[in-house]
Amino acid sequence: MAAMKKLAALVCLLVVTTAVPHGQGKRFITETDLFKFTWIADPQLSPDGATVAFVRVTVNEKENRYEASIFVAPATGSEAPRRITSGIRDTAPRWSPDGKQIVFVRAPEKDGKPQPAQL
User: Mean pLDDT, the chain, as a whole number?
Assistant: First the structure.
């Protein structure tokens, strides 16, 4: 239960620190602000509870698409998240039972079009 509370706190911290502009006055969110947001999705705690893997989603305004990649971070929040995949359509991270590997889903691109997803 304590690990889940730490995970929830880490996810909230990541969302707040990446989505809230610092030093600006109060104003309403506009549709163009959404292009600057970063979403955190599908957090997965490692079997030993020490590390969390998650999907980080951003908007590529120029290409008019969402981009998703897999990151890991200590569950304690003691270090910054680290990107572990190089694709732009990487989702659904899952830990191996021993916690040494992560499998994820990637939808590769060919000729500018997404192809069927692969593990």
Answer: 85
